[in-house]
Structure formats: structure tokens, C-alpha cells
Amino acid sequence: MEFIETPVFTRLITALLSDEEYAGLQSLLIENPEKGDLIRGGGGIRKLRYGRQGVGKSGGIRVIYYWISEAHQIYMLAAYPKSKQANLTSGEIAVLRELVKEL
Fold it and tell me: Burial, 79: exposed, middle or buried (Cβ in 10 Å; 0-12, 13-18, 19+)?
């Protein structure tokens, strides 16, 4: 499986997860790329709830990604802490939907 990160994702994930935690996230997605919930109206983008080590349930993060099964690629689009934002706005979903149309 190939992981492709947007520059925004790379910036955000390095602030949210250690290298070890990020490797665990990638392993989880390799085992089950459909793990995240499909986002309604998102054109196939998914939201995965991922718990960070030692910070409890409220300290988890949300990871937004897009899986292209036939190409064995996962595009890592965005990440944010649960405590800052529960869901993407309709505007954010629209932007990501347009982005994945180009892939």
C-alpha cells in the first residue's frame, strides 16, 4: 500500500502523532483500508477516528483519507484533534470532494 500525503496533512500529523503512532495508523489502514466511515457527500473520502496513546478518548484525532483500491493507494488528506473539531464543515467536504475528483 502506498501512502500519499498532502502538504497540509504532513504539517498537521507531525504535530498530532509521534512517528510510532503514525506507523500504527498506517498499519491499521493497510489491514483495513475501509476502516474509516464514508463521509456523506464526500465523493468517497473517509473519516477515521484514531486514539492517541496515553491521552484518553477525548484526546483522539480524526484522519481524513481517500482510498483508491485498484491502485493500492491511500491519500492522506487532513487530520485534526477531536477536541478542536468534531466534523468537517460542508465547505471543507466540498473542497476535498473536488480534490479527489482529480485523482
Answer: buried
Per the rule left: phi > 0, alpha: psi between -120 and 50, beta: everything else, 12 is alpha
This prediction has a pTM of 0.88
Q: Which domains does the chain have, with CATH numbers?
A: 2-101 (3.30.2310.20)
Q: What is the pLDDT of residues 59-95, one digit of tens each?
A: 789 999 999 998 899 999 999 988 777 778 888 889 8
Rounded (5°) CA angle 80-101-88: 25
**Cα–Cα distance for residue pair 85/103, rounded to 1 Å:** 26
Read off the pLDDT of each residue in 51-57 and give the average, rounded to a whole number. Answer: 67
Q: Count Cα atoms within 13 angstroms, Cβ side, for 90.
A: 0
